[in-house]
Design goal:
Oligomer: heterodimer
Radius of gyration of chain B: 20 Å
Distance between the termini of chain B: 21 Å
CATH class of chain B: Alpha Beta
Number of domains of chain B: 1
Structural class of chain A: alpha/beta
Largest interface: A-B, 41 and 42 residues
CATH superfamily of chain B: P-loop containing nucleotide triphosphate hydrolases
Strand order of the largest sheet of chain A: 6-7-8-3-9-10
Largest sheet of chain B: 8 strands, mixed
CATH architecture of the largest domain in chain A: 3-Layer(aba) Sandwich
Shape of chain B: globular
Number of helices of chain B: 11
Order of helices and strands of chain A: EEEHEEHEHHHEHEHEEHH
Order of helices and strands of chain B: EEEHEEHEHHHHHEHEHEEHHEE
CATH class of the largest domain in chain A: Alpha Beta
Number of strands of chain B: 12
CATH topology of chain B: Rossmann fold
Number of strands of chain A: 10
Number of domains of chain A: 2
Strand content of chain A: 25-35%
CATH topology of the largest domain in chain A: Rossmann fold
């Protein structure tokens, strides 16, 4: 039997289209995520790729119930057993939140500029483990060490750090509760290539140490190819292709995947970029 | 200086005064831009690549200061002059910014004004640099937007930047930059904020424009794959210094400097490899001491002591 930490079935997210004005009313709805099904194996990494507006971020935010899905189920294997995240009330979700954490794209926007690093990283502990408050400081120092930051960073503000260091702070905050599922929403997109390589290596190390499962949202296909075992390709809210990364990259079945792959610039100056023409493809 | 060099930087240094002392953001940089070709500056954040470009347009503001160097510009059918010798607020400097050189920025949403229509912003550039009527400026702006691939240009001129997608905004930026027919176009990470499919479209547009209107491009990026696709000449910068220059094939296929080799190894490739090799994030100054560039075989330069340059590259 396969050990799937998350099983998502017929998952849809819709946004209301409102008529503006004094008597605002709903005039329709926009389907941002359309009937998506997939599963993630424990300890593996799943990549979600697609262009902006394809619904990849909306999908992961709805799985975490940051926004409410319209229909479908997302069955999560928590420490206490399988639960459908879509059926739970907000209150019942609270204890589950510490098992599912998120790392955000923009290391400048996702850290409160008025909080010190110690407060940023310990905030999840204050919320979820207030009874252990005596040990918080030690746990924070330990976590910062694991992500490669020294203890003297504790009392500094985010502005004092470079992009790569800030992303490490974001990772420390996500991992301090010892989650089992970590969602990385474009976690390395804002970073330089060499800093990106450091952060990707760190994520791989932490995955092995802490037995983490990653859902890795990215538009950089090379990063997904390097980092993930399985991948979903999303286009206009639907999954157009899914499977092992190697298969998607070597023998793509859907035209949209072919378009994405053809748009990746090669490091070899003699291999010229020749993206497929969007209009000649059957994308729907 | 050979005739086909449009811009030649010699010994440029830019200093920033900070609380903890003076910092040389650009340290004795020399660069030759060939006419109608694409020169790329590659480096990590903080390597001084953007500051070099800003210095070319005299856009360095306090606490920064250009402390030494020459920037010799030779526009077509004109006398060459030193950009750094132009007086502040002079007409020549005014003409240089936007007229002779233009710049495209990384983030088109912050570079465009959110409270002015696209048409207003493109027309502003024309009205600043050319003596034309508003109606003529409107026509010129429409034609240029059409040229960079914005359909229905006269309608879209009335719209605001938030009504455009990221790729479309970048096309507007390109139109704004090109509308006064500059001879040098500086692109500061123009595709970093874009999706891979949109990036491919913008790269194709820039390439096509370069070939049809004979413009010289200075391309600043940290993405080596983009460099491979668009550049003719490449300069690798780190810590404000130039470490290696050469043609795009020389730099990417056969790098000499260990830093360049590391930078290429840090790119996640299409081949699945076990582990990326990041460049150390705390560069030890003793790793790459300030050797000056020395010429090596194949019309390229590298900043290494002669003893560390492999024998086959010696002149």
């Amino acid at each position: 039997m396969t050990d799937n930490i998350l099983e998502v079935n017929n998952f849809s997210v819709k946004f209301p289209l409102m008529k503006r004005g004094l008597l605002s009313r709903q005039v329709g709805e926009f389907t941002a995520v359309n009937n998506v099904s997939f599963s993630v194996q424990r300890g593996s990494s799943l990549g979600i790729v697609g262009e902006s507006g394809s619904g990849k971020t909306t999908l992961v935010r709805a799985i975490l119930r940051a926004i409410d899905p319209a229909s479908g189920s997302a069955v999560f294997q928590s420490h206490t057993g399988a639960v459908d995240l879509c059926q739970l009330s907000n209150k019942a979700l609270i204890p589950l939140r510490m098992q599912m954490q998120m790392i955000f794209q923009d290391p400048f926007a996702s850290l409160n500029p008025r909080m010190k690093v110690a407060d940023i990283v310990s905030e999840p502990l204050v919320i979820h483990r207030p009874e252990q408050h005596r040990e918080h400081r030690q746990m924070v120092i330990h976590m910062l060490e694991r992500v490669g930051l020294e203890a003297d960073t504790l009392h500094r503000f985010p502005h004092a750090f470079s992009g790569g260091q800030r992303q490490r702070i974001g990772i420390a905050r996500a991992l301090i509760l010892n989650p089992s599922l970590v969602i990385c929403d474009e976690a390395v997109s804002a970073l330089d290539v060499s800093v990106q390589a450091q952060v990707l290596n760190l994520l791989v190390d932490l995955q092995q140490e802490m037995n983490l499962t990653y859902i890795f949202v990215a538009h950089d296909l090379n990063v997904v190819h390097h980092f993930c075992e399985q991948a979903l390709v999303m286009y206009h809210g639907s999954v157009v292709e899914s499977g092992p990364v190697e298969q998607i990259f070597t023998s793509p079945r859907h035209d949209y995947t072919r378009l994405l792959l053809s748009a990746i610039p090669s490091l070899d100056p003699d291999i010229k970029l020749s993206p497929l023409d969007r209009n000649s493809l059957s994308l729907e | 200086m050979s005739i086909d060099t449009i811009l030649s930087i010699r010994g440029l240094s830019v200093m920033f005064k900070t609380e903890i002392g003076e910092h040389l953001a650009v340290n004795n940089v020399s660069l030759d831009m060939k006419r109608s070709q694409t020169t790329a500056i590659v480096g990590e954040s903080g390597s001084g690549k953007s500051v070099t470009a800003y210095a070319m347009m005299r856009l360095i503001q306090a606490p920064g200061k250009i402390t030494s160097g020459q920037i010799i510009c030779t526009p077509a059918q004109q006398e060459s002059f030193d950009v750094l010798q132009l007086a502040d607020n002079s007409d020549a400097l005014y003409h240089l910014r936007g007229g002779l050189m233009a710049m495209i920025f990384q983030e088109p949403m912050t570079a465009l004004s959110p409270v002015h229509t696209i048409g207003n912003q493109v027309m502003e550039a024309i009205l600043t640099h050319q003596s034309v009527t508003k109606a003529e400026a409107f026509e010129l702006a429409c034609a240029m937007l059409d040229r960079v691939g914005i359909a229905d240009a006269s309608q879209r001129m009335q719209q605001y930047p938030f009504e455009f997608s990221g790729g479309m905004r970048q096309r507007v930026m390109i139109a704004m930059a090109l509308v006064c027919k500059p001879q040098i176009l500086i692109c500061d990470e123009p595709t970093t904020a874009l999706d891979v499919t949109i990036q491919a479209e913008i790269l194709a547009l820039l390439k096509e424009l370069k070939e049809t209107i004979q413009i010289s491009l200075l391309f600043i990026t940290h993405d080596l794959a983009v460099v491979a696709q668009i550049a003719d000449q490449v300069m690798v910068m780190n810590q404000g210094r130039v470490l290696e220059t050469g043609s795009v094939r020389q730099i990417l296929n056969d790098p000499i400097h260990p830093y360049t080799q590391n930078l290429i190894a840090a790119v996640p490739g299409m081949k699945q490899q076990d582990r990326l090799r990041p460049v150390s994030n705390k560069p030890d100054p003793t790793d790459y001491p300030s050797y000056s560039l020395i010429p090596v075989k194949g019309d390229r330069q590298v900043a290494l002591p002669v003893s560390l340059i492999p024998e086959e590259y010696h002149l």
